[in-house]
Design a protein that fits this description.
By secondary structure, the chain is an alpha/beta fold. The protein contains twelve helices and six strands. It is 41% helix and 10% strand. It binds iron/sulfur cluster (SF4).
Length: 271
């Protein structure tokens, strides 16, 4: 198992791009997969050719996410932020649309993460001509996460971004690693994952994600009661549920929004 980690498969074209000075961007959500990917990439890419990019989601992301990224990023690797251009929050957009995103219409990811990150990486490349417009865009998706993810290509040319003098490739460096591998990489690097994992969450993502398991939604409700109440009130106001099962949050989690008390082990959510 550790052999698989040590031998992180690097496609030949990717190896050549790294060797000849292309920029390698780490898409960093603050989650365990991004963190392990950062550890592994910083071993094979010179730090002056790495950049980490995070799309901040404000109140809906776990408290301490940005601080966690900053604390675990290797020194010398810049961190840039990719906020949504409209300045609107995810919950404001849900209210405007009158519905939550779904696995088929995941505008939350495209509008709040992928789009802003691509915009910032285009700007970064333009501001740093030494990379010659060449970019390896590394993301922490893994095959084990879902059948849809397992069908993704771990290396592919990004045709949409490869215009106007740019050559961009999307790379999934930890695609073949298991959850156990991921935690081992983090542990062996002398780091800890974000506190929400130890508090019982299986994924970081948004605190309340459209794709979350019932167990994660329940635990998130206990950890972030104020935000839970905001989600539940929004569900009632727009008459549409966060969960694609169309079961309202209180029924799905078994947690009463009126009765839940803060169980945040960090105290961050009460600041
Ligand atoms: S974590 Fe879930 S809710 Fe948040 S942007 Fe991603 S898919 Fe959407």
């Amino acid at each position: 198992m550790s052999c698989r980690i040590a031998d992180l498969p690097v496609p030949p074209r990717c190896r050549e791009l790294i060797r000849t000075g292309a920029l390698v961007a780490i898409n960093h959500s603050g989650g365990k997969d991004s963190q392990a990917m950062t550890v592994l990439l910083s071993r094979i890419v010179p730090r002056d050719r790495l950049v980490a990019v995070h799309a901040p989601l404000g109140e809906v992301e776990w408290p301490g996410t940005v601080e966690h990224i900053e604390a675990t990023l290797p020194s010398g690797v810049p961190l840039i932020f990719a906020p949504v251009a409209s300045g609107k929050t995810l919950l404001e957009r849900v209210e405007e649309r009158g519905m939550w995103p779904s696995s088929k219409a995941r505008w939350c990811t495209s509008d709040f993460k992928a789009g802003p990150i691509q915009r910032e990486l285009r700007r970064y490349l333009k501001a740093h001509p030494r990379f010659g417009g060449r970019l390896v865009n590394a993301m922490g998706m893994r095959a084990e996460e879902s059948p849809a993810r397992a069908r993704k290509a771990p290396w592919r040319r990004n045709e949409r971004m490869s215009v106007a003098g740019r050559e961009v490739f999307d790379w999934l460096p930890v695609f073949d690693l298991s959850t156990e591998d991921i935690f081992r990489v983090i542990r062996d690097a002398g780091q800890s994952p974000h506190w929400a994992y130890a508090a019982g969450m299986s994924r970081l993502s948004c605190s309340f994600c459209i794709l979350a398991s019932r167990a994660d939604l329940r635990r998130a409700a206990q950890l972030r009661p104020d935000l839970y109440r905001a989600y539940e009130e929004l569900e009632r106001r727009i008459g549409h549920t966060l969960s694609p099962s169309r079961i309202p949050l209180p029924e799905l989690t078994g947690v009463s929004p009126a009765a839940v008390r803060c169980d945040d082990p960090t105290g961050l959510d009460r600041a």
